[in-house]
Amino acid sequence: MEMEWEQGSMEALQRTVRRVWDRVPLTRSKMEKAGVTPDDIKRPEDLRRLPFTTKQDMRDAYPTGLLACDRRELVRYHASSGTTGKPTVVAYTKNDIASWTECMANCLETAGVTADDTFQVILGYGLFTGALGFHYGAEALGAAVVPTGGGFTERQLLLMEDLGTSVLTSTPSYALHLAEIIRERNLRDKFPLRMVILGGEAWSEAMRERIEKELEVIAIDSYGLSEIIGPGVAMECGHRNGLHLNSRHFLCEIIDPVTGEVLPDGEEGELVITTITKEAMPLVRYRTRDLTRIIPEPCPCGRTGVRLARVKGRSDDMIIIRGVNVFPSQVEALLDRIPGLSLNYQLEITEKDYLKELTVHCESEATLDAEASAKLARLASKKLNEGLGIRVGFSLLAPAALERSTGKAVRIKKAA
Ligand SMILES: [Zn+2]
């Protein structure tokens, strides 16, 4: 398969490979084991000769074993929360911050954000990369940033109204939460909101349709991860049919998650990213564990380069129930098709006689009497069993029964 790269990408890859070879012992020893040196990287297809970098490598190198620059050159650290043990630390030089800002500004421009927008950042500021990435990018584009951070819904609404917020960024679940309150209080006419940019958790087309309808906006999907740079890796354009990769900074491949073989364009697999402009922590063939595919057809917007399908889920989020793979986003799409259910849900996994059982807890949209509740629960149970091809439990909850999260929604609850 002939790979199409942007002009300059090959040289940038060679510089990156040389940099990690010279400065990162862990990556160098992996390359030596794989029998490849920087001089072997001559053509795009040589990329696949390089060894993968994994989340485990980042854990083993905690905190800064993958650093490829002098410590004096660092200007910023970020970290992602580890679900087990220590966080993953990432570091940036001055040039890395400039590249990140450029990536983010490109992405926001792709989405359709302009200097005329008032841009509210409803993401946590701090170690997490999300908020500062959007913040710098929107400022670079000339938009007026409102850095409200996460939570404090009353204040979010007040500032949206008083400052005239036209674009906001949050997680999909928080956008849905805002939409509910805005509908209840009839606030929609109070602000010129036209676009929401969502990311940070896997979401479905069904969720997009709901948010777009309830908030009367367009909802744009964004993709990024702190190990690579933060948000700003890829973003949808106004056509909302796949994410345009920031190809000047990143190369991507789709691999079979089991064999590690590179898959042809169009086939679904695990996304692998190589950074080609980073200085502090360049990553070669980083396994993101996110499942997606490359969309081979060109986008009607005319942008060329790699376009990625919506991330279906993190391979870690995949639940295997009696041999069947189930993703939270699949359950979400099924719940959406059942009239009367909200998209506020949680999946619970329990184990009985060494077998995993899945129970879906979902809120109804309105308060129902016992008879209507029982009827809706029976219907939901039937539709889920048919749609997933396995038997799952279902419990109907009253509206607002689940805790609302201002960060990532807790979709999977593992029983103690
Ligand atoms: Zn496009």
CATH superfamily placement of the largest domain: ANL, N-terminal domain
Task: Estimate the global geometry from the Cα principal axes.
Answer: globular
Report the CATH architecture of the largest domain.
3-Layer(aba) Sandwich
Distance between the termini: 48 Å
Beta-strand content estimate? 25-35%
Question: Number of DSSP strands?
Answer: 20
Distinct bound molecules: zinc ion
Helical content stands at 25-40%
Which structural category do the helix and sheet elements fall into? alpha/beta
Give the ordered list of helices and strands.
HHHEEHEHEHEHEHEEEEEEEEEEHEEHEE
Number of domains: 2
Q: Order of strands in the sheet with the most strands?
A: 4-3-5-6-7-8-9-13
Would you tell me the overall average pLDDT?
A: 91
Describe this structure in words.
- 30% of the residues lie in helices and 25% in strands.
- The chain has 416 residues and is α/β, with parallel strands linked by helices.
- The chain has two domains: 92-315, Rossmann fold (3-Layer(aba) Sandwich); 318-414, GMP Synthetase, Chain A, domain 3 (2-Layer Sandwich).
- Strands 4-3-5-6-7-8-9-13 form an eight-stranded mixed β-sheet, with helices on both faces. The chain has a four-stranded antiparallel β-sheet with strand order 10-11-12-14.
- Strand 6, helix 8 (205-215) and strand 7 (218-225) form a beta-alpha-beta unit.
- The relative contact order is 0.11.
- Bound molecules: zinc ion (ZN).
